[in-house]
Amino acid sequence: MTIEDADLQYCSPSYATSHRNNQVDQNFTIVVLRDLVPSGPSIGLIVQIKEPETFVLAQGVYGFKVNERSDPCYLIQLSNTRWYRLLMNSIMVGSTQVHITNTAFKAAKIPLPPLPEQRTIATALSDVDMLLAAQDKVIAKKRDIKQAAMQQLLTGKQRLQGFTGEWEVKRLGDVLKEIADGATPSTANRDNFDGSISWVVIDDIKDEIWATKNTLSEKGLLSCAATLWQPGTLILSTGATIGEVGIARVPVATKQGICGLVFDAQSMSTEFMKYWFVLNKPLLLSKAQGSSIKEVRAPTLIQFEVHLPYLDEQTTIATILSDMDADLTALEQPVSYTHLDVYKRQADKLGKGKDMQDRLSNLVSIFDSPGLNFSNNRAEGDDILGDAYEYLMRHFATESGKSKGQFYTPAEVSRICLLYTSRCV
Q1: CB within 10 Å: which end of the chain, N or C, has fewer?
Q2: Rounded to an integer, what distance in angstroms lies between the CA atom of residue 248 and that of residue 233?
Q3: Residue 418 pLDDT > 70, yes or no?
Q4: Do 369 and 385 touch, CB atoms closer than 8 A?
Q5: DSSP states of 111-152
Q6: How does 202-236 read in b/e, with b if 16+ C-beta sit within 10 Å?
Q7: What is the C-alpha separation between 126 and 120, in angstroms, rounded?
Q8: If pLDDT is split at 50, 70 and 90, which confidence band does 290 have?
């Protein structure tokens, strides 16, 4: 870990002159031994100065030089491990401003392999850090592209090829079939809860809502003003945390401050409106009312004006934006095992017993066909079976309501693992 330009603070020349004993250069390794946060999240953190410049250390920050048996880059990587963090927390003292004494820090025992192995470990982990940083930049760039795409496509500034005709301006209330706020049954009666009805609170609102942390019983639902929304309903938070939006994929009820919106399926795409609300979250926030808890009330919400193309163009726009979301999800969550849940729901399609064995055997035998021998048709960088696999996984993911990134390990992750293992061998 290095000191970034954005983290730098500056002092006057006179202060630096009067604190020469607190000055360090790139020959020093830096460690934080004081933290203003009682839990000490930064205490013991080690960084390195890469630039040939002189720095003045603030109070609680120390510089040290390693001996010939230690590599500073290894120590930096070690300081980011959970084991090291627990060690530092065990030797820190104080309550409001925690710190580690010089004596305690120097006495702490750490694993120290031979110097060549330290350097190999540090280099491998540093390479992984660089790959992850590059991945973060890719994610940030894709987010920017998606935001720009929403601004262009959801406003009609950029039209898709093959679509013509003027967009209409309609009140939200004119395209809604139903809108209602949620409710909470009496918490004094536990019989109202822990039933079979999914009950959406703010933390449950995701792009697609498949499950909720809390549930209601039939009695609880009937005892309050909450509506049981059917799959396909748009769920929108209009109170407290305003503007969170998703689509219910199972029947759900909602807490107060979270509305259900049902659109006319003959003229409206719920997916299109989901992205419209994402883009127009600032508009929602600007219309919020209330003193202690702000909310956007339904009479205000239905007055919003929406620019709308015909349904087929709405659907195409929503599909493009959904594909962008799938790419982002694949980058952000490269490894996931939730496909096991989908497998359990889909397993019956393979049949059972002998039927399942025959079906799987026939499937495997397909790949023995000479027609699938691509050894004489290989273009550089081409992976026909791999591309076919990703195509099939994408459609499997679409049908299950999840992203393709949740069903296989992307090549980027495989390369990181290969790089790491090759460095450690």
Answers
A1: C
A2: 5
A3: no
A4: no
A5: ----HHHHHHHHHHHHHHHHHHHHHHHHHHHHHHHHHHHHHH
A6: eebbeeebbebeebbbeebbebbebbbbeeebbbb
A7: 10
A8: confident
Measured CA to CA, the distance from residue 272 to residue 283 in angstroms comes to 17
Task: Give the up-direction half-sphere exposure of residue 263: CA atoms within 13 A in the CB hemisphere.
Answer: 23
> Rounded CA gap, 406 and 397, in Å?
8
Looking at residues 27-33, what average pLDDT do you find? 93
pLDDT in tens, 121-159: 999 988 888 888 888 888 899 999 999 999 999 999 989
The reply to whether the predicted model has a pTM over 0.70 is: no
The 3-state DSSP class for residue 98 equals strand
> From the DSSP assignment, how many helices (H) and strands (E) are in the chain?
15, 17
**What's the distance, Cα to Cα, between the start and end of the chain in Å?**
24
Strands in 46-48's sheet, in edge-to-edge order, are: 46-48, 29-32, 61-64
Residue 34 has pLDDT above 80, yes or no: yes
Confidence band of 210 (pLDDT split at 50, 70, 90): very high
Tokens linked to 413 = 């992750």
Torsion of CA 416, 421, 423, 425, to 10 degrees: -170
CA distance 144 to 84: 36
Count other Cβ atoms within 10 Å, centred on residue 401: 15
Identify the pLDDT of residue 36.
85
What CATH homologous superfamily does 168-308 map to? DNA methylase specificity domains (3.90.220.20)
CA distance 344 to 61: 54
Q: Does 5-111 carry CATH code 3.40.50?
A: no
| pLDDT tens for each residue of 316-357 | 999 999 999 988 888 887 544 444 444 444 445 555 556 655
Structure token pair of residue 286: 């600007």
The residue to which tokens 């493009």 are assigned: 320
Which amino acid is it at 134? Answer: A
Going 296 to 300 to 302 to 307, the CA torsion angle's sign is negative
| Tokens coding 135 | 């991945």
